[in-house]
Amino acid sequence: MAPVDAPAFRIWPPLALGVPLTAGLVLTAAAGDPLSIASLATRWIGGALAVAFVLWNGWTLWVMATNRTAILPGGATVLILQSGPFRLSRNPLYVGLIALDVAVALLAQSFWALVFVPIGVVALSWGAIPPEERYLSGKFGSEYQAYRARVRRWL
Q: Which of 134, 136, 105 is nearest to 43 (CA)?
């Protein structure tokens, strides 16, 4: 049996971000919010973040597809991407998904969903990113270390 060529996630990245967001939306629907975040400004900011997510993650996915590397979390990485958004962030899809979480919370006007976004970021930072970094270090060695020294984790 061949070894698995993928990170050994503690938490699958979409769940790390999606579960706290969903919990916040459900809590708002069930119990209401202690503070209102409803305003025209939050709607505009949420809309702008949603558009930014589509553009940023679309660009990232295009770079990944062009280079024929795994798009879904947990797939095999065939090379260290260093162009496009990968010049700015080692985790551009995660940056985009965090922006999407904030956008959804603001557009839904859910205080709890907005408050729970950092829980998702912590879960991602603990459960997904370290296993990915270990995987990439083991697979690509000094090439990944040099990339890691040059490019920030987030932005």
A: 105
